[in-house]
Amino acid sequence: MLFSIFVFIGWIIQILICFYFVRFISNIIIRCILTLVPCIILTYVVAYDHPPLQMTSMLFVTYCWLASIRLIHLIVLTPDQCPTLSDYILKFLWMFFPIVRCPPDQHQKWPILYDLVCAGIKIIVNHWIYKWLLICEGSDSCFRRIMFYILILTYSFLLDIQCAILRTITHDKYMLKPMNNFPIMSRSLHEFWGRRYNQLVGTIFRESLFQPIRQHLSSTKIAPLLVFFTSGLLHTHLAIVALKDYQTIIPALVFFVLHGMACTIEAHVPFQLPVLLSWLLTQLFLLVTASLQIGPFIRIGPKFYSLNPPPLFEQQWIPKLPVPNFCPK
After folding, report:
1. Which residue windows are coiled coil (predicted)?
2. Domain range for residue 148?
């Protein structure tokens, strides 16, 4: 615990040093080295200090990566974007408190009750899938991928509850940015990654990677590929931290590079497919390629899940759905 506090203080010192000193260095290479090297060291220490097979380890490492990406954006690529310390700090605090203004029609379109109902449904489904995964051995079947996908999507029920509380306190002036926006409805990979799935990380990647890279490079094709490649490195590191499985490096990178190439091709295709067909092809592509990324997590079996129960799982007042007495192959 004491060591973790020192690492946290190290991140604060690095963030402040970059703001007050590093960003004023005119040489971009030196700025990059002084920004990136301490971030790599701190991220390595965090990964080394946390045990494997723990979701919390993956969460802490993810925050280290996102903080590093923010620093590269604000110190190396666009050092003049945040002239004041408050604006600068808020960029990092947003990773933990993703507060945004409610759209003018938010109350009529999505009332607060909707957030609470969504949270309730997600809790029940999340706990049901989790209990089912606990009794089944790992496999790489399509059904298993779908179960894991549902587990991930329903994990955001706490964010829905917090969003409802924030909207109530602020009288619908502010809300938390939703984690997901019905990704099952995506009719293209660009829509899936850009507007529907994991919007919190997606927002940081768009603001701190895609847009700054587009400003520095004239090519519209390189920026998305670099973003997907960076995402591949992040997810590869998470798999290594959680599972100590170095065989995931190539498949995870292939997954994100493949999706980056597919998104680039989508953007330059001169025709548009029918809505139903584009939806079906998008979902099939996601399902077929998913094992490249989530394969290690669905093949590992009950041990990983037993160490990572979802929030509120032990609460008896939450309704429990009966778990099927079979395991999908």
Report:
1. none
2. 99-329
